[in-house]
Amino acid sequence: STGDIYLLGSGFGTWNIGSVTVPNVGGVTVLIALDSVGDTKWVETLQGNNSYADQVEIDNAGNVYLSGRFLTSLIVGPDTLTKYDTTQVNYTPYIAKFDTAGAYQWSKAFKMGAYSNPLYTASSGKNIPFGINSNGTLFVGVNFKDRVVFDSDTIISSYPFSEDFLMVRMSALG
To answer: CA-based diameter of the chain, in Å?
Structure first.
């Protein structure tokens, strides 16, 4: 409704975005908010090697939600998200919330088990699909194998080599 534009990017090196410089930290995911004429309103960075941003959604109050994936760990605001099984080479999907001014609110990781590499689904082309209804409730979907841990809940697949799908309903508070 405000005409703002949100951009996502991931990469290495130093980034210059309007008047903001993002230093080379070895790998960064960037969320950029532009106003309706293209001027930079704010820039948020998430730091982690092999981290990617996949989707951004805005709720009715103007809060910004970002989803993506990381390989080992990801620093989002003051929090560090980590993977469940560090012996495996698989990505961990995450979702994070920022307010209308770009201030960090919260983030969550879906920690995957040994056989999981759940992020890409050929049918949808999305890595961690999610949506927000008019009441601000989030619906997040994750494909997984073996197990997935979200907060204190562990969901175990009935057969660790088969692909399962988990739909999580979350409040705007995370």
So the answer is: 52
* Beta strands 73-76; 40-47: pairing state: antiparallel
Nearest alpha carbon to residue 127 among 58, 50, 55: 55
Instruction: Give the C-alpha separation, 81 to 169, whole Å.
Output: 20
173 within 8 A of 106, measured Cβ to Cβ: yes
Contacts of 159 (CB under 8 A, 6+ apart): none
Q: What is d(CA 102, CA 44) in angstroms, rounded to the nearest whole number?
A: 7
pLDDT at 79: 94
- The answer to whether the beta carbons of residues 40 and 20 sit under 8 Å apart is yes
Q: What is the pLDDT of residues 69-91, one digit of tens each?
A: 888 888 999 999 987 666 666 77
Output the CA–CA distances (angstroms, integers) from residue 140 to 11, 18, 62, 161, in the order listed.
25, 32, 19, 22
Mean pLDDT of the chain: 78
**Residue 141 CB partners (closer than 8 Å, separation 6+):** 128, 129, 130, 165, 166, 167, 168
CA distances 21 to 13, 109, 138, Å, are: 11, 27, 32
Query: Global pTM?
Result: 0.81
